[in-house]
Amino acid sequence: MPTNKKPTKWMKLDNAALIYPATMNRSWTALFRLSATLTEPIDEDILEVAQKRTMRRLPWFAYKLKRGLFWFFLEHSKDLPKIEQDVANPCVRMRLDENDGYCMRVRYYQNRIAVEYFHVLTDGTGGLVFLQTLVAEYLRLKYGANIPRGDKILDCSEDPRPEEAEDSFAVHSGKITQTRKEAKAYHITGTDERNGFVHIITGSMNAEDVLAKAREKGVSVTEYLTAALILSIDAIQRRKVPSVHKYQPVKLSVPINLRNVFPSKTLRNFANYVNLGIDPRLGEYTFDETLNIVHHTMAMEVTKKLLNVKITTNVLSERNTILRLTPLFLKNMALKYVYSQVGDVLSTTTLSNLGVAKLPAEMAQYVRRMDFILGPLVDNRVCSAAITYNGRLRINFTRTIEEPLLEREFLTRLVKLGIPVKVESNQQN
Questions:
Q1: 3-class DSSP assignment, residue 60
Q2: What per-residue confidence (pLDDT) applies to 85?
Q3: Which of the four pLDDT bands, split at 50, 70 and 90, describes residue 348?
Q4: pLDDT at 2
Q5: pTM of the model as a whole
Q6: Helix 221-240 crosses helix 405-416 at what angle (to 10 degrees)?
Q7: CA distance 401 to 30
Q8: Among candidates 18, 302, 31, which has minimal Cα distance to 167?
Q9: For the chain, how far is it from start to end, CA to CA, in angstroms?
Q10: Per-residue pLDDT for 1 more than 50?
């Protein structure tokens, strides 16, 4: 059994988190959101107690972002973030001075509990563990629900475990690096949405329908959706760009949960990305051709050796002596430049699929639906995130332009492929 660990006063940012403080600005923070919709209205007082107990079990989420001389760092707080009423416009930038410095916020509205995370704290996997633990504790307090606990739903009567706060990038870094250079990708453009409004369009479908279609083709659900999304973007570019010589690669950034490849129990960031796509200049692609490219590229890229090279490239850059001794304001300028060259510019959009959220029956009877939303990205004006729960696969599109080009093209394509889709929106007329 691991020794118990109380939170340290200060904690270094993990390797993946380093870029986010450098690139945040007055209008943008790298956020994502996970939510659970229950069968009855939320009791705020009980939710506050549940948050307190969850934070004691997972103190890694009770850290505030601070600015040092050479690096940003995280400082632990014994206080708690205030529970907030939810809003119709989620994942709008998180100004840390408005949030008491915390890097997450718990919100509720009617039957829904939502948590929004600044990416310096965690990734989707860690965020899902926190949400599920918070909801389980809430249900225990409100209904006396006896919910089994394990790795995905933690027991709040236990002490924190040190491996949950590990920087697994540093642990699994090797010696061999590679270039980050890739061709820049096509980006969807449109009319900037006024007043910072963020559109959320949800496509909800029967998970078995999608799984059956993917199995017919011998691919995973993520690969199936990725191919459909790539061809949807391809169709948009072909309509908007007049000359084939001006076409740019269509590439989808797909996050990979590194815990599935390397031994790690961390609840901080531990993911990397694979950019999957086509070069439209070479001609039009069929769905099967695109599926074939996606499937085999994933098979080649998602290996322990190649992922280790990616990890090592990032970690050794962080350990560079000159960079380490560079004052923070200069370091931020350097990191912003690096991100402008190897960040969003290399992909057209993102599809982050958390897969199937499985809750024990004792908990599932109280939880009607779950959602996963990515906040707006820096350069990509539309992005998407998916999660499957209770037989429904929901893809949430986040958009900061007025025109719903990608959502319309993609969801229509799924229907044509034989997958009925129900569409929801946060748009208020």
A1: helix
A2: 93
A3: very high
A4: 41
A5: 0.94
A6: 120
A7: 18
A8: 18
A9: 56
A10: no
> Which two structure tokens, joined as six digits, stand for 296?
């085999």
In angstroms, rounded to a whole number, what is the distance separating the alpha carbons of residues 94 and 102?
Answer: 9
Count of C-beta atoms within a 10 Å radius of residue 360: 16
What confidence tens digit (pLDDT) does each residue in 225-273 have?
999 999 999 999 999 999 999 999 999 999 999 999 999 999 999 999 9
Angle subtended by helix axes 124-143 and 44-57, to nearest 10: 130
pLDDT digits (tens, 9 = 90+) for 158-185: 999 999 999 999 999 999 998 888 899 9
For residue 249, the one-letter residue type is P
CB 174 within 8 Å of CB 368: no
pLDDT at 91: 84
Measured between alpha carbons, how far is 175 from 158 in angstroms, rounded to an integer?
Answer: 37
- The answer to whether 105 and 116 are in contact (CB under 8 A) is yes
> Do 214 and 418 contact (CB within 8 A), yes or no?
no
Q: Is 126:266 a contact under the CB 8 Å cutoff?
A: yes
Which helix (H) or strand (E) segment is 227 a member of? helix 221-240
Give the pairing type, strands 271-278 and 250-257: antiparallel
SS3 call for 323: helix
Task: Answer yes or no: is pLDDT of 33 > 90.
Answer: yes
Give the pair of three-digit tokens for residue 300: 């080649």
Tell me the domains of the chain and their CATH numbers: 10-152 (3.30.559.10), 194-425 (3.30.559.30)
Half-sphere exposure of 119 (CA within 13 A, CB side): 25
| Per-residue buried b or exposed e for 91-118, using 16+ beta carbons within 10 Å of the residue's own CB | bbbbebeebeebbbbbbbbebbbbbbbb
| Per-residue confidence (pLDDT) for residue 96, from 0 to 100 | 74
Q: Quick check: 173 and 312 in contact, CB under 8 A? A: yes
- 3 has a pLDDT exceeding 70: no
Instruction: Give the integer Cα–Cα distance in Å for 267 and 163.
Output: 8
105-120: average pLDDT: 96
In angstroms, rounded to a whole number, what is the distance separating the alpha carbons of residues 404 and 382? 9
- Name the 3-class secondary structure at 349: strand
| Mean pLDDT computed over 353-357 | 97
Rounded Cα distance, 196 and 383, in Å: 16
Neighbours of 382 (CB within 10 A): 26
φ, ψ of residue 10 in degrees (nearest 5)? -125, 155
Q: Which amino acid is at 81?
A: P
Question: Using an 8 Å Cβ cutoff, are 95 and 156 in contact?
Answer: no
